[in-house]
Design brief:
Number of strands: 7
Shape: globular
Order of helices and strands: EEEHEHHEEEH
CATH superfamily: Winged helix-like DNA-binding domain superfamily/Winged helix DNA-binding domain
Helix content: 25-40%
Radius of gyration: 15 Å
CATH architecture: Orthogonal Bundle
Largest sheet: 4 strands, mixed
Strand order of the largest sheet: 3-2-1-7
Number of helices: 4
CATH topology: Arc Repressor Mutant, subunit A
Strand content: 15-25%
Length: 123
């Protein structure tokens, strides 16, 4: 999936993305968003599993550990639905593989610290 400029519609080069778990920020050269709680945990699970499909059970364990809600599959659907539009500006998409789980598609996300990412960009 390629990212396009929202102004002119031209394709943008693949951006380097970093997800800082401590500050809960997903950042590229052009965009930055803050993720909260379960959305952050879902994205971390998908990043760790990328490009493979991450099974529903693995997502449930990552988000809730042993304290899962009554209907976790429905809650995951809602989380994915709310996370997709936030990831779109980064050229990222979440693909559902029916009965199996979800996969993250698009540029690679590095789990790291924003200050390291900023330092590398400046160099």
């Amino acid at each position: 999936m390629t990212c396009t400029c929202p102004t002119c519609g031209q394709p943008l080069p693949p951006a380097q993305l970093v997800l800082d778990k401590e500050s809960r920020v997903l950042a590229s050269e052009h965009h930055q968003i803050r993720l909260e709680g379960q959305q952050l945990k879902l994205l971390i699970a998908l990043v760790r599993g990328a490009p493979r499909v991450v099974a529903h059970d693995q997502i449930i364990m990552t988000i809730w550990d042993d304290d899962e809600p009554e209907h976790p599959e429905n809650t995951i659907k809602v989380l994915v639905h709310r996370l997709r539009p936030k990831l779109k500006p980064f050229g990222l998409a979440i693909r559902n593989t029916s009965g199996l789980g979800y996969a993250l598609e698009g540029p690679t996300i590095t789990l790291g610290e924003l200050k390291e990412f900023t330092r590398r960009r400046a160099a």
